[in-house]
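Page 47, continued from p. 46.
Same chain as before, 206 aa.
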Amino acid sequence: MALTIPYSHFNGSLRFINKNHYTDLDFARNSNQQLREYYEQYIEPIAKKNGLPSKFNHKLLEKEIGDGLYFESSIPEGYGLGSSGALVAALYHRYAKNGQASSRSSTSKTDIPQLKSDLAILESWFHGTSSGIDPLICYLQHPLLIKENYIIRPIDIPRYELTSEDAIFLINSGKAIKTAPLVDQFMKDCENSAFKDSILNKYIPV
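Result:
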């Protein structure tokens, strides 16, 4: 069982390069180039194999990348804070309904498994393998409880009391690192039955 909670301190949104808009133009151009690579190396090939979520308008994404689309974000990359999840959630929000912003508030419990699957497809380019959980929590912006067999349901949690001695905090390691090699190594380790058994029966129950 796991609990996921949105972290509102960081945020990101899709924008277009505009010299009249205050932003770091070098950052925006680099982000646009990364989106172009993401489209050309991942989205376009799987679209040709009909592997994209059925409602995802990849042609509009291609056009808008050409128009200067980029991801304006305060989320540090390579620190495990969900930068790729936030990007994928933003892309799905914009392009999953023929270019019309899809409604997060209308997402029902029965929609969540398919939504998670769609988001996992879009994020797998960044991690090699994606569970879809990071972009799901970014998309829904609501705490989620994950039970056995990936049964997921939204839950409400009590407001944090400043007088409480309990706390959840993040420590900056000062080192950025790519997630994909770590995920690949973990999946490889899980091929070892002793390691997998230890994860399932020792660490997860904790």
